[in-house]
Amino acid sequence: MFTSQTSSIQDSFDVEDKDTDFDNEEIVGYNQKTQQLNCYYSIYFYQSTSLSLVDTSLPSEAEPELRSYISRRLSKGALLGGMGNIATVELSVPEQAVGCYCCLLEQERSPDQPEGEGNGDYVVCFLGGSEKGLNTFRLELDKYVQGLQSSLSPELPNLETEIRPYLSRWYEESVLHIYRVVQLVQGNISYLLHAALSHTHMEVTGADERTKADVARFIKAASLQGLVQEDTPSASLCKAVSEDSHSDLVMDCSSTPPTLTNAVSNRFCDDWIQAFLNAAESCNPFLLRQILENFKLKAIQDMNNLKRFIRQAEMSHYALFRCCLFLQGCGNGDVLLQNARAEHSGLLEACGIIRVLEEFLSEQAQSASAAASSAAAAAVAR
Fold it and tell me: HSE-up of 236 (CA within 13 Å, CB side)?
């Protein structure tokens, strides 16, 4: 009746393509007319071997099926405290099979409190979409469910005023933030992507707190901090890049669409605009997330290639030539060299190579600008 599988986001990525297999996958429970996903929650009190329902938004015939599934998972020790578990469950709901996120929230125990007296934990479940889709938001779901920890007690006097509204917003708060940002900025999404890659600080004005939080979460999700393998500590590298980067990106949301100041992009970021817009138009937040992860993986791949070329260029002029061609072709040379300069700051020979590469890109940019100006002048003359 229930199936679970271990999946890795990276296993399904093809960094050469901006579209993914989410593109053709129908979102389970998605209502095209209302543009909303059917999503549910359940929360249970767990003590010893007893599992009792506290609150749920599931239909009455589906809740006992979910409870039976959770009981089996608990009896097998498959739910660990504070660690979310995602599986596909078949329930008596219109979708039949849905993605299910479950997390055991263990309550603090007094050292001198006898076992079984007043002790109890909670199991929180979020259901909606597919197992594969929920897996792309695992970190957000873990963080969201942990936000409930301090509000839980055996009596739950705040069930209707605090806990139920919080549980009801899980999809909106944990999954839709990337979608809301793309909808807000539309084609300007490339500037946010560039800011994330280049560690540029971003300021949002004229917006409510949720919009500010959405943008901050998007920038964090699109950045490579903690993902790139490097000898330089991540925090130190980001600090060095930030100190060397351009002015803060400012987004003023007092107008529609928002206006951007100090906006910078490049060909690499621009090439991903349409993929984000297409996913947003289809109202598919899971596809949006995987496109974002593809974007990051391609950037990491290019960074690793540049590092390899720089090492080879220390011994070969031909490798230096290949490095120039690579930077010219990837469309992300400014960001890659910015990160490489910060990472190799203590390596004299590597810094010399990076300076040569920066001069090459600068000359290419000037040549392109001059060509564009000549073409514009010729067009006016005609």
Answer: 10
pTM: 0.81
Question: Rounded mean pLDDT of 53-72?
Answer: 96
Helix 189-197 and helix 273-281, axial crossing angle in degrees, nearest 10: 120
How many CA atoms lie less than 13 Å away from 63 in the CB half-sphere? 16
User: 331: which DSSP letter?
Assistant: S
What gap in Å lies between CA 144 and CA 134, rounded to an integer? 13
Query: How many CB atoms neighbour CB 263 within 10 A?
Result: 16
- Count of CA atoms in the C-beta half-sphere (13 A) of 90: 4
Does the pLDDT of residue 10 top 50, yes or no? no
Q: Do residues 297 and 10 make contact, with C-beta atoms less than 8 angstroms apart?
A: yes
Find the mean pLDDT for residues 195-206: 95
130 SS3 class? coil
Q: Which of 32-46, 103-117, 310-324, 351-365 has the highest mean pLDDT?
A: 310-324
Query: Which of 242, 258, 241 is closest to 337 using CA atoms?
Result: 241
Residue 81 DSSP code: B
Q: Is the pLDDT of residue 266 over 60?
A: yes
pLDDT at 272 over 50: yes
Q: By percentage, how much of the chain surpasses pLDDT 90?
A: 53
Strand partners, 85: 102
| Cα separation, 178 vs 292, whole angstroms | 9
Give, in order, the Cα–Cα distances in Å from 5 to each of 81, 86, 367: 20, 9, 53
The pair of three-digit structure tokens given for residue 269, joined into one six-digit string: 């970021």
Tokens of 135: 């897996």
Torsions phi, psi for 47 (to 5 deg): -140, 125
Instruction: Output DSSP code: residue 159.
Output: I
The structure tokens listed for 47 are 């003590």
Cα separation, 382 vs 280, whole angstroms: 41
User: How many whole angstroms separate alpha carbon 19 and alpha carbon 38?
Assistant: 25
Q: Are 125 and 54 in contact (CB under 8 A)?
A: no
Q: Which two tokens stand for residue 262?
A: 């100090």
pLDDT of the residue at 357? 84
Overall average pLDDT of the 105-116 stretch? 68
258 vs 204: CA distance, rounded Å: 10
